[in-house]
Amino acid sequence: MKNGLRVLVHEDNTTPMAVVNILYDVGARDENPEQTGFAHLFEHLMFGGSVNIPVYDEPLQRVGGENNAFTSNDITNYYITLPAVNLETAFWLESDRMLSLAFSEKSLEVQRNVVMEEFKQRYLNQPYGDVWLKLRPMVYKQHPYRWATIGKELSHIENAHIDDVKAFFKKHYNPQNAIMVVGGNVTTERVKELAEKWFEPIPAGEKYVRNLPQEPEQHEERRDTVTAKVPLNDIYVAFQTPGRQYKGYYAIDLLSDILARGNSSRLYRSLVKENPLFSEIHAYMTGSFDTGMFVVEGKPLEGISLEEAEAALWEQLERVKTAEIAVDELTKVKNKTESTLMFSEMSLLDKAMNLAYYELLGDADMLNHEVEKYLAVTAAEVHEQARKIFRRDNSSTLIYLAEQTEQEPAGEVV
Amino acid sequence: MLDRTSAPDFKTVGHIDLIQPRNIKFSNGVNLFYFDSPEQELIRIELVFGNLKFDQEKPLLNQAVMAMLTEGTGKLTAAEIADQIDFYGAFLQADFGFDQSQLTVYSLNRHLPKVLPVVKDIVTDSVFPEKELETYIRNQQQKLQVSLKKNDVVARRVFNRAMHGSTLYGFAAKAENYQQLKQADLLAHFKLMFQPANCTIIAAGKVDEETIKLLEATFGNDWTDSAYTADTTQPTLHPFDEHFYYVEKPDALQSAIRVGLRTINRPHPDFPALQVLNTVLGGYFGSRLMANIREDKGYTYGIGSGITSLKHCGSIFIASEVGADVCKAALAEVEKEINTLREELIPEEELELVRNYMLGSLLGSLENIFSHADKFKNIYYSGLGFEYYERYVEIVKTVTAEELKRLANEYLDYSKMYKVIVGKY
After folding, report:
1. A303 & A359 share domain
2. Where is the Peptidase M16 C-terminal domain positioned along the sequence (chain B) (predicted)?
3. Domain containing A376: what range?
4. Are A342 and B42 inside 8 Å of each other by CB?
5. Which of B2, B3, B4, B140 would you mutate first to test chain A, the one with the most A CBs within 10 A?
6. B168 in helix, strand or coil?
7. Quick one: pLDDT at residue B235?
């Protein structure tokens, strides 16, 4: 549109529903280091009423719609599903909050409390819940990925001021910074008409030019140990990886599948089943836009020393660098990826979210070529990525140590 | 000039089109229900088996048999099963449910001829190898230790146990229950449970002639019942007399709360209206509990209420994790909201919103062919037909505020509810 808003349509008349997904190109990485957790707090405030509409949820529920949102380190994504006949209600609501929020003190105060309870519920009051608060600053020294979306500490949220909220909105919440995907039982013509009516009058706003400190390559081994009231020891080894646009991304993704996807994966088979040293083990990558993380995590069995467990884990990482990856093994992870992508096509909402995400990456059409990119990966490429990533001097190891206390009573009255 | 202050016109959901399954009974008694949607080349197949009667002496067998189902057969090791399923990009998931348990297969149609023989081997010839059982016991005991550190998990365990007593619904596994597991018991349980007479197959996706033939060839012909019938009846529920449980966790930043009681299930005529009442109370983002306790007071990240419908009873409950310092205040608000429903009529505007929300939500829950199969399972296992959904829609549209007040007085009595607090109080 003239104001810079990008609008995509995905027509699917097999459903009576419509989806409106709006992605704002702002995440926790865009925060001020002294005001972390702000992008996510702001997401909550987006439901506190807009300039012309005092409450957001109620009018949507009244027409049979549902909505939610999430914030990551890279993006903030809002979505609505509603009966397609009531599509205009979604345009009315979303355009008004893109135009301007109500900025009420009461809403800020309540959402500060809600987010602080979320902080406690998900990060502080759970066994191992604070692991990301500790691991991120080990992997990242410069890049704002060093804090989690919830924020560095409760005080940053506690101290959020209404003026900061207004400034954040002005900087990031404008049409130039947004991508809208409308999907389901809609026509492109109708979407165009509604977009022109509700979104085109919104001023373009100022363009936010992102200029973040990039993370320097890591060249020293990092290690930390924390002791906490958890029942079992836990080992996290995180490696830096290139960002999402890196051409080796697909090989790295398959590498994580070879290591840890499903019961036939290497880590599960060798370290949980054949030579049982762990009760559970995982490997995954974050897929961040900038420098990402490849994380290998496992809980050693009771009676297994951390040294032994860690050594066994490294043995597997060393093996995947050089030892042959059988044709069948590579075909297996490719087949798995192909069917996962096909099954995810069954969800209209996932489709809309993915289109917005790929459009932000550069082109929504990339979504249609993901399978080919996975299928083209060779064993040599997987080896190459494993050799680049699994270096001691690219690792950050966090040992989560179970506090040795006297046996607590079971804590249950049943 | 564009008027941004008034909402656009809208339409209410008129009717809901549900897809009904086709049904074939194989000669060995296996009942196949299928939903054919030829657009995608993929399929979900659920093999559903009724749980065996709960045995207090061996309480974990139903769960353990399901969890270990893919750990080895007479022909295949656990590793070989995993290799074959993963190689063909399929997914195999064994889930224990309170009434029925199921093995679900997700696969692309083109790989089905390779995947189904493995599934057949699992449901007819699982052997629960000793070594795999040891691994299972060891790992589950470790996982249990972590789970018991989660206040919401503990609250759910205490609550279910109090409400349902010593039954499959109320049982909460302890470390020693895992220790008791014996291969011979698992095998005996499996052989009784996994028989054609106790098996229903629900397939959704591309289910063409060829697929049906394949399903029949795999699960219909040579697979026969044994001389012993599976006993899937369950012992009577004996709820505990004590209604208040406080599990203190001195370091807790938040307390998990769970409040509720046993109630009617889906076949009862009041059930759809009770769902409306539940939605008003805590069943959606704009509900009274959320509006008051999260959006007004900021005591919690989330609070909600829910209704479950099981074969032998239903239950209605409220669950949340609230700041430890405001736990008493939060519970007082829960009580207040329940009492308001008993004393005052729900305003028409709010009721209208909830009606529209529920109908939109039902429509939106029919996202793809799998969702239609899920809707069918709800009614099939409640002994109801598709007219249930017609009635449901009708009641959501027409139930009156007076009727909902009557239901609140009949089904929502705070003084009779079980109350569980894990954390600080």
Report:
1. yes
2. 183-356
3. 222-402
4. yes
5. B4
6. coil
7. 87
pTM, 2 dp? 0.93
Contact A272 B139 (CB under 8 A): yes
Q: pLDDT 10s per residue in chain B (425 long)?
A: 899 999 999 999 888 899 999 999 999 999 999 999 998 899 999 999 999 999 999 999 999 999 999 999 999 999 999 999 999 999 999 999 999 999 999 999 999 999 999 999 999 999 999 999 999 999 999 999 999 999 999 999 999 999 999 999 999 999 999 999 999 999 999 999 999 999 999 999 999 999 999 999 999 988 999 989 999 999 888 899 999 999 999 989 999 999 999 999 999 999 999 999 999 999 999 999 999 999 999 999 999 999 999 999 999 999 999 999 999 999 999 999 999 999 999 999 999 999 999 999 999 999 899 999 999 999 999 999 999 999 999 999 999 999 999 999 999 999 999 999 999 99
| DSSP run (H or E) holding B153 | helix B151-164
pLDDT at A413: 47
Instruction: Give per-residue burial for B78-108: e unless 16+ CB within 10 Å, then b.
Output: bbebbbbbbbbbbbbebebbbbbbbbbbbbb
> Which pLDDT score, from 0 to 100, does residue A409 have?
45
> A92: domain CATH number?
3.30.830.10
Which of A165, A198, A231 is where one domain is finished?
A198
Domains of chain B are: 22-219 (3.30.830.10), 244-423 (3.30.830.10)
Average predicted confidence (pLDDT) for chain A: 94
Smallest CA–CA distance from A347 into chain B, residue: B367
CA-wise closest residue to A148 among A164, A134, A168, A159 = A134
**Judgement on whether residues A282 and A334 belong to the same structural domain of the protein:** yes
Q: Does B300 touch chain A (CB under 8 A)?
A: yes
Cβ-defined contact of B286 to A410 (cutoff 8 Å): no
- What mean pLDDT do residues A245-253 have? 96
A269 contacts B79? CB cut-off 8 A: yes
Residues A190 and A227 in one domain: no
Cβ of residue B96 closer than 8 Å to a chain A Cβ? no
Residues A262 and A327 placed together within one structural domain of the fold: yes
Residue type, A299: K
Question: With contacts defined as CB-CB under 8 Å, which chain B residues touch A121?
Answer: 254, 300-301, 321
Contacts of A107 (CB under 8 A, 6+ apart): A45, A48, A49
B 344-363: CB under 8 A from A: 352-354, 356-357, 359-361, 363
Instruction: Quickly count: other Cβ atoms within 10 Å of residue A115's Cβ.
Output: 25
- Sequence-ordered strand ranges (E) for B221-328: 244-248, 254-263, 300-309, 314-323
Chain A residues with beta carbon closer than 8 angstroms to that of B178 = none
Nearest alpha carbon to residue B32 among B373, B316, B400? B373
The verdict on a CB contact (< 8 Å) between B39 and A14 is yes
CA distance B250 to B324: 10
Two tokens, residue A14: 């097999």
DSSP string across A225-238: EEEES-SS-EEEEE
Q: Indicate whether A407 belongs to any domain.
A: no
**Residue type for position B95:** D
Counting the structural domains of chain A, the total is 2
In angstroms, the Cα distances linking A291 to A222, A241, B215 are: 17, 6, 48
**A408 part of a folded domain:** no
Which residue in chain A is spatially nearest to B144 when comparing CA positions? A231
Interchain proximity B86–A114, CB inside 8 Å = no
For B86, the closest of A82, A264, A302 (CB atoms) is A264
C-alpha to C-alpha distance for A70 and A64, rounded to whole angstroms: 21
Using DSSP, state whether A293 is helix, strand or coil.
strand
The answer, yes or no, to whether residue A404 has pLDDT greater than 90, is: no
Q: Is residue B294 within 8 angstroms of chain A, CB to CB?
A: yes
